[in-house]
Specification:
GIY-YIG endonuclease, binds zinc ion, 4 domains, Nucleotidyltransferase, domain 5, alpha+beta, five-stranded antiparallel beta sheet
Length: 468
């Protein structure tokens, strides 16, 4: 006979409390979108460091009608929330329950997004370390089928909780963590939580609260070393997560270890999005030349092939990014540097049976001397006159076609407004011919800017508008 688990929530095991306080939370909402939908119910159980628990729950008047299908799903009706407090009314209470604790929820990004946005509507910022129990379950039970709350409830026999109402789901989620610690040992659960939280081990020379107030928006961060010299500049979609990952033992690279030994100070600059972060990063790296940004400094070597017209002898000319400032016609690339361009061309020459002499790989010692590729049957004969120069050039053009730099789709500059609604920030970015424009001047071609522009235009072309 199966033993039924107790309905009451067992306390969080002692080993977990060493990681800090945990606030298990669940919100019910009017829909799935944190930016536009609203919270209708919140339940929180906080596990304190001394082993005690405190609970808080409330229906919330969302200020909008709850759609019928959501009422059916959650059992929370318009009538039930009519006299309930608004989020604003309870925001102090919610903050008191959550402040300084790890924010734990099943599908945590959902609940966190809603709570953060409700605080934003009250003109308040909210940031917490987030632990998702879906990811925890996946890490602890990698072979289990399904990690939704129902799957967990069935697998671990967590019966007796009031499903779909906020407190019932919070109880079931908290019970799952306790049961997992019973099954696998508290140490295994602690290790998994540490890994998911990317719990950082701070370099000893930094103050203990150095990572405390990092926002979870996108942005750029700077690491400084002795004499306040910049060591490293990075960009991030989520600053908080990214910076902490540099100091999390599970995720540290050899470069991170060296950085953390030299680091004396961290600075961060939030941006409205990935684009703004990328541009700011490129600009700061150029200005401040940090010691460890090897990849970014290599950007200077980037370049293109230009295909000459029929009158030129050498069909391909190598142009560095700095040399392409005026004309963008017949450019193919970008290649990270001249050597990798040559490597690509050697490969393409073989595949498309191009001529070694015509590509400049070798020089004929006499007129119409066949190139090596011709001698082994891999050249159509541009060298010995079997193929004309313009025929060869046409085939070369076809081989390069997929690398052609596209025509700039605007007559002049284009403007893109990047917005971060959750953090109330927006940046206006200007581009011209695949380059960023800053202070009225077009910046040199940058491979990362180009790739992000192409990707963003493909997805949201309508958000770009021509500059007046
Ligand atoms: Zn040849």
């Amino acid at each position: 006979m199966m033993v039924k688990r107790p309905v009451t929530v067992p306390p969080v095991p002692y080993a977990l409390r060493k990681l800090g306080e945990f606030a298990f939370i669940d919100v019910e909402t009017t829909g799935a979108k944190p930016l536009t939908d609203r919270v209708t119910e919140i339940a929180i159980i906080r596990f304190h460091a001394d082993g005690s628990q405190s609970r808080w729950q409330s229906l919330i008047n969302p200020g909008v009608a709850i759609p019928a299908e959501i009422q059916a799903l959650t059992g929370i009706t318009n009538a039930m929330v009519r006299d309930a407090p608004s989020f604003f009314d309870v925001s102090d209470e919610v903050r008191r329950m959550l402040e300084g604790a790890v924010f734990v929820a099943h599908n945590a990004r959902f609940d966190y997004g809603f709570v953060k946005n409700e605080f934003r509507r009250s003109a308040e910022a909210f940031t917490a370390d987030v632990l998702c129990t879906v990811r925890l379950s996946r890490m602890l039970y990698p072979d289990a089928e399904g990690h939704g709350l129902d799957a967990l409830i069935n697998r671990h026999e967590l019966h007796g909780f009031d499903r779909h109402r906020a407190m019932g789901d919070v109880e079931a989620t908290a019970a799952f963590v306790s049961v997992a610690a019973d099954d696998l040992g508290a140490d295994a659960v602690v290790a998994a939580i540490k890994s998911l939280l990317k719990t950082p081990s701070l370099p000893a020379q930094l103050p203990t609260d150095a990572l405390k107030n990092i926002p979870d928006s996108s942005g750029v961060y700077l690491f400084y070393g002795v004499n306040d010299l910049p060591l490293y500049i990075g960009k991030a979609k989520h600053l908080r997560e990214r910076i902490r990952a540099h100091f999390s033992s599970d995720h540290m690279t050899p470069n991170d270890i060296r950085l953390s030994q030299e680091l004396t100070r961290i600075e961060w600059l939030p941006t409205a999005g990935e684009f703004s972060a990328l541009l700011l990063e490129a600009q700061l790296v150029k200005e401040r030349m940090p010691l460890h940004n090897v990849n970014l400094r290599r950007r200077d070597k980037l370049g293109f092939y230009r295909l000459g017209d029929d009158a030129t002898n050498a069909p391909l000319e190598w142009l560095s990014a700095a040399q392409i400032s005026e004309s963008y016609a017949d450019l193919y690339g970008p290649f990270s540097d001249k050597a990798s361009a040559k490597k690509w061309l050697t490969f393409a020459a073989r595949e498309h049976q191009l001529c070694d002499h015509a590509l400049g790989f070798s020089k004929p010692r006499s007129d119409a001397e066949p190139c090596f590729a011709r001698q082994v049957g891999r050249c159509h004969g541009a060298c010995d006159g079997t193929e004309t120069a313009s025929q060869h050039r046409a085939r070369l053009r076809a081989a390069l076609a997929h690398l052609a730099l596209p025509t700039w789709p605007f007559t002049g500059e284009a403007v893109f407004e990047e917005r971060d609604v959750a953090n109330d920030r927006s940046d206006v970015l200007v581009f011209d011919r695949w380059c960023a424009v800053s202070g009225g001047a077009r910046l040199p071609f940058d491979g990362d800017v180009y790739r992000l522009l192409k990707r963003t235009m493909g997805k949201t072309a309508s958000k770009f508008r021509a500059a007046k």
